[in-house]
Amino acid sequence: MGEIVKKFTDGSFLEYGRGSFDDWCVYLTDSAGVRKPPRDTAYFEQLKNLAGKYGTDRIYADYVRVYNLTKKELDPRVLKSISDIAESYDGDALSMDTILSILYMAMIAEEKKAYTKLGKRIKRLGIYMLLKEKRSVSDSANFMRGMGWREIDELCKERGF
To answer: Which of 35, 40, 99, 153 is geometrically suited to a Cys-Cys bond with 141, CB 3.0 to 4.6 A?
Structure first.
């Protein structure tokens, strides 16, 4: 187990740990103590449901706020900002806090990859396709598998990031 990065009101928490490639795999330990890496499809599904309730523009704008704050190193002030953003989601504050925190940590992990050409943009492309282009959860989470970085880079540039 790694050092706890963020603890939530229900007792669940996030940390980095050893994954298949590096030490920057995000792990969520739920309130029952079950530890596992969150899957893109799981939190994409949650984001889609929240977008149905709060509007895709709002969810996407809040994600982009976090995206713009994301650098290569973890910043406790950004984690606090995420909690502040999430508070505006009333009964869904915990869900938003958790999802945006997972995305933040995942984007840092992408930025830290040794040979990355895409960094955090790879997550943004999936979220953009999910929320703005209304693609399915599965397609948004998996369509880049097997693509070269140049092709993904071009898709990002076409969408303005």
So the answer is: 40
